[in-house]
Design brief:
Blueprint: E1 5-6, H1 8-15, H2 19-27, E2 34-35, E3 41-44, H3 45-54, E4 69-73, H4 77-90, E5 95-99, H5 102-112, E6 116-120, H6 128-136, E7 145-150, H7 154-164, E8 168-171, H8 176-187
Parallel strand pairs: 4-5, 4-6, 6-7, 7-8
Antiparallel strand pairs: 1-3, 2-3
Helix pairs in contact: 1-2, 5-6
Length: 188
Amino acid sequence: MLKKALGTHDIARICQVTPPTAIRWIEEGKLPSFTTGGGHRRVWERDLVVFLKKHNIPVPAGMEGGELKILIADDESGVRETIARSLHKTYPSAEIYQAEDGFEAGRKTSSVLPALLILDLQLPGASGFDVCQAIRSAPELKDIKILAITGHDIEASKKRVKEAGADDFLGKPFEMSKMIRIIERLLT
């Protein structure tokens, strides 16, 4: 498993402080760090998690309690595979799960408890709207982030799924870089 080193700007973003505050924490010895050959300060992700817990700062999904888990629910295998490949490049140690219909998406969400569900709205069985509403009505699933995707009736779908409780929305077709930016924001 790869270890992840974070820069002072990453730490500042996660802790919702300014980069000079993150630098001060490092200089005061509150946050263990090392210096790269180029003179940049870096902190191992596991050391940041310890710091966050000690100071009652929320730990972003995927940093605590093991690996990041993401579920991709889409009836098109090509779409699922393309998203999974992109996610593995960005989050190499993430556990990626897939579901091809709404019922499987619901079952896997309950059993896997992913940090993020990428949810196509036009699923066979139970629609993505139904899955989204079911997740939002279950207290034990309330912390799961939901990124809804569809290529069908984009504006109406966006409004409807936001009302159902989705955290964000992306119309198909989309650029993977845009999806990754949204996912990074949702997971922090």
